[in-house]
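[stage:ingest] chain + small molecule (inosine-5'-diphosphate)
[stage:ingest] validated
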Amino acid sequence: MEQTFVLLKPDALNKKIIGEVVSRFERKGLKIVGLKMIQLTDELCKAHYAHHATKSFFPGLKKFVCSTPVVCMVLEGKDAVEAVRKMCGVTNSREAAPGTIRGDYSLSVQSNIIHASDSLETAYKEIERFFSPSEVHEYTLELDKVAYADDERANRSKIKKR
Ligand code: IDP
Ligand code: MG
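[stage:predict] done
[stage:export] tokens:
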């Protein structure tokens, strides 16, 4: 199993589609193990978007993501990092495939509804950045027994112990 970090951006809150997006992940079978609303600070935004800090669009991006609180989640499942990225679609929502979250809810590059970790390494870092260990929960659901084959469900080896 893997855990991945998801952040629902201010355009998702403005469009009142937080529930719809969360629902997509639930329906897919991903397990919500962390969920909260926070206000991004300048510092957190700079750390989260460090790879874009020198880009011309960064000031606009920072203003946008700090304009309302954001909803943060940790999702758990088999190959969760890749599965969630696929559900989001490509960065430019205008090119994102219909059926993906960006493809269905946005026409923007900047205001593209959602962030999701792009690799397992990034997921470890982002979960640690946004969630304290006590905010990420370990629990069993009845569905866990039928959602996967035995060998798929086998272990939590890719989940970082903190
Ligand atoms: P990703 O969110 O698909 O992983 P990244 O390249 O990591 O894409 O970019 C992070 C976020 O920065 C994007 O989701 C988008 O909100 C914003 N962004 C990326 N490129 C641009 C751009 O060219 N103009 C404005 N905003 C951008
Ligand atoms: Mg990214």
